[in-house]
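Margin note: ligand = pyridoxal-5'-phosphate.
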Amino acid sequence: MDERSGFATRCIHAGEAPDPSTGAHGVPLYQNVTYAFHSAEQVDAMRAGEAPRFTYSPRGNPTVRCLELKLADLEEAETVVATASGMAAISATLLALLAGGGHVVASDEIYELTRTLLDRDLPTYGGRATFVDASDPAAIEAALEPETRAIYVEPVSNPLLRVADIVAIAEIARRRGVLLVVDNTFLSPALLRPLTLGADVVVHSATKYLSGHGQVQGGFVCGRRDVVGPIREKMVMLGGQMPPFAAWTLLAGIKTLPLRMERHGANALAVARQLAAHPAVARVNYPGLEGHPGHAVARRMLDGGRRGFGGMVSFTLVDGCAANRRFLNALSLCTIAVSLGDVGTLAWPWHGRDLIRLSVGIEDGVDLERDIAAGLAAVETAALVLAAR
Ligand SMILES: Cc1ncc(COP(=O)(O)O)c(C=O)c1O
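Resulting structure:
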């Protein structure tokens, strides 16, 4: 691998080399807690910074370190810290950036626990948040205050899939001297690398597309050393480190990320079109559809959509919640489950809204089409029966 290597090559090789002591191909799982020194002098040299060494796994572990180097390469970050979950990454980031108070302007449609952290917990540490529609950069700028330290957005919102223009928001952040934090969970670095567009910090729930197989929890914070350094310290204080086994599992998952993301995107576009063409469906939210209000921004931001627009689709049925139940109960391939980014398609009725969110997987497109068609047929049949009464 060299500086000309493409993204797929870097997903496989970045941060990795055969193990120097055994020649093992693929990063070994270092499941130990502590590290042996052969002499007191070696301890002195480590403490003086002359011969850096791992000392204690919660402060640094070779398997986790290899994963951090891989992600730094993929997100084009100076440094990356791996965490135990997406929320560990997000809470360490916000608590470090807002230490001693301050204000954050955040998207009004973000992951619900991030919203709760900003809304409920942050004020107990002296911080404040204002929530705005992040698909409107002017609304973000208007919400900035003298005490604002950061803007916090998800490029594609959850569950309505509104698109935030990261280039425009990064320009506002730079001009107004605040940091831009982007949660890149929904798109992953295979589709979007926010740091290259001017963002200062990228956070991830690695539990989703980076893992890809729904087997592991994890998170990342990526950015410049001067910004991520204090976040790493906060994360260590909070005990939010990624365990070595999770890192080892993620090293494997990330190797197929670009292949999976393209397939997620192709399947999601086909499902979105299938839903949009059906009379039982009132509305489909997918940034890859030409009629979606964020389509032009998404196309610009995601390299013309060459690798797709991601795997998340949401939709509303004409007959509301009762129809949602019929649709979900008629599915046999898709699983009724929360979470996202899994190789298998997950369908979830959104609490408090007439909305179903699909995390479209990488199954064969024809099989997915058949399953979605069965769901829609169940809705249609019920509507006909009701109409005939
Ligand atoms: C966009 C987004 N960010 C962060 C998180 C939190 O990640 P985790 O569940 O790994 O803590 C989630 C979880 O669903 C998410 O959807």
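The mean pLDDT is 96.
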